[in-house]
């Protein structure tokens, strides 16, 4: 079936230079591709005639734009949302996160992923790069819920032998679904040995996968890698041959000039996590410099343990505000550029070529959202892009399409039963917390 | 008529030490005061019996808490939302803000205020400290819309003789409405002469008003004040005798140790505007230090020209994130403390004594909001306060009561016709922009 979104403010995210960023027009979808982006009545009429069975969405007073792309997430950790905040890192890990994770089953992880996907879709996130364990179990969830996903199987030295087969299994489970892609995800250059980093690269080369990892998130990490390898984290990964356009480097907070040049030169996808970096006090990533150097920069939430939500509107806004604050230049990362990080640029993290995703153009993958502009905080409309970036909210997203399929309509996630989902989540969390308490009693 | 909110998660914002922050119970209102905060069935039953005409709100799965208090806003500037972003300060003022303001009528300002109030109420903001011109004209709007307001009549040296009579007029227009209070608002210590600052103080003393001003927002301001008066902005205001618990000092970004001690010692209400400070690249206010020194710190939006919305959830969250980022300490400004700035502490900016506003306790003013917790981004509930502060959204607010009157119900602003309001705003903005274009043609 074809879809047609009519009389919308269309924001295709393909403008550059002085080209108008939006126009009034219609967007048509056939199958999983965008088949029409037009303001010409005759073209729109021809589309209607060619697709007599099409479903039409009246978008007067609304805006149609590409869906948002979250390029670094630990979605299953929604089960641990607000479980432990405002405490020092090591207490957070030792007393909360690790015990919780030790008592989670693969089904629990899948449930956390389901809750995370519901939140993402409702907020207009159509693509997510995820990084966690039991991602092979999550292939089914992502397929069923309809989100576009790059699922990164996270490993450390201690569990690589368990995880590598999971990667192969996940590849197999998603082989017939182009919307789901799999990646190897060594945790970080300071927690995974060079040999085991290379084993990740090897499996990526074998199956044509992406590789994702945390890079230079904290000063401690930089110090450890320097002590061990006499290189920066970026330099170390580069020396191992791990940096390419198929590498997603999350955080990249503590970089030197050479690191910035290397990331740009290798075409690495930098995933910037501004709210996480702020909340965990990691530092401020040099995004303005990375962009000046020509690096591919994208935006991400980092999941609910360090943020604590999956709201990409807040992230892209914070990305802009934080760069302005840190550089002292209020002109840095203007609204449209910030939005590009979360759409057109984000597409590269999903392994898509420029123009294939994160934009509205004929032939591109049909991931789009309808934003209701008839809200007090989005009026008046002097500049709709500024309104979206500086005032837009997850709750303004009305309809969401991924891969040509409507997954949210009138703010309802199709196929999800929220009260039932919340009850399952609550029950699961109680069970895990009881297991933690029991194991502590035994010790 | 009495109101009763039953079976809610109640967050009274009165906890300190190890006292539980929330409990399950009911909140009752009689007239404009909170008359019941209880988890005891017999007490709740007695309240029902004493008020047979009461209206009951079933709050299962919801949370009841004090309304949010925005302590520094230029609400009428909603007409200029996203009018000019990402450009240098002087171009912003000269080419956009000042020409726009020159062509605004008092009715236009009242309309901007109306749009701002609608946005605030829908987002759970029950009290606002405003600062702009034609505030005498805005008394009627604030009265009609039902928000609690402290309206600060802004003046410079050039227009003080027009504004002082407006203050007297505003005092007169609000004399019979305790919900509306008036303040003198000299723009800043670098734009208003010492004599004219003192004329503001004099009128405050005469009528028992608050005084509000911008303080130490930028390094330029500090430099100018130092050059002119050989003092910091805080030192200068203090030497003039302008600092007291009835002073609201907006921004306070660039302070030295003595300034911090002075603000704390004089009981000044510091209004922190984190998103504005970030977006305009003003710097980071030393909030953690101010709190350690015992200063009264509150949170604010600064209006839609520098933010660009009136969302206090984002501000209080950003307040916490920004302090964690700037200090390098992830434990600074934890969730509950951040929420206190926007509730219990904010009450002081409204000229209320501790416990009279911004808390749920018997005898306090009845300003409260009902938050719907049945949202994916607010589940599961390990810690409801962390969920609110780190994930809460304006759109989660379902019902809003100010001064005992329901002003928002089921996310509808009672008495407001949004399509009609947006049309009037659009028409007004077009008229003002046309006037600007015409005047430029004449020049």
Give structural attributes.
homodimer; 443 residues; alpha/beta; Urease, subunit C, domain 1; TIM Barrel; 2 domains; nine-stranded mixed beta sheet; 17 strands; 41% helix; 22% strand
Q: Note the beta-strand portion of chain A.
A: 15-25%
CATH topology heading of the largest domain in chain A? TIM Barrel
Query: Which two chains touch over the largest interface?
Result: A-B, 68 and 67 residues
User: Rg of chain A from C-alpha positions?
Assistant: 21 Å
CATH C-level label of the largest domain in chain A: Alpha Beta
- Poorly predicted runs of chain A: none
Average pLDDT rating of chain A: 97
Distance between the termini of chain A: 59 Å
Shape-level CATH architecture of the largest domain in chain A:
Alpha-Beta Barrel
Percent of residues of chain A in helical segments? Answer: 40-55%
Overall spatial form of chain A: globular
Question: Based on helices, strands and strand pairing, what is the structural class of chain A?
Answer: alpha/beta
The main pleated sheet of chain A reads as: 9 strands, mixed
Query: Count of DSSP helices of chain A?
Result: 16
Q: Tell me the quaternary state.
A: homodimer
In total, the number of strands of chain A is 17
Question: Please, how many domains of chain A?
Answer: 2
Q: Assign the CATH superfamily of the largest domain in chain A.
A: Metal-dependent hydrolases
Describe this structure in words.
- Two copies of one chain form a homodimer.
- Chain A has 443 residues and is an alpha/beta fold.
- Chain A has two domains: 2-66 and 366-413, Urease, subunit C, domain 1; 68-349, Metal-dependent hydrolases (TIM Barrel).
- Chain A has helices at 41-50, 89-102, 106-122, 135-145, 160-173, 194-207, 219-229, 233-239, 257-266, 274-279, 287-292, 312-327, 335-341, 346-349, 384-391, 418-442, and strands spanning 2-10, 23-30, 33-38, 55-58, 62-66, 68-73, 125-132, 148-155, 180-186, 210-215, 247-251, 269-272, 296-299, 368-372, 397-402, 405-409, 412-413.
- In chain A, strands 1, 2, 3, 4, 5, 14, 15, 16 and 17 form a nine-stranded mixed sheet that branches.
- In chain A, strand 9 (180-186), helix 6 and strand 10 form a beta-alpha-beta unit.
- Chain A is globular and about 70 Å long.
- The N and C termini of chain A lie far apart (59 Å).
- The mean pLDDT of chain A is 97.
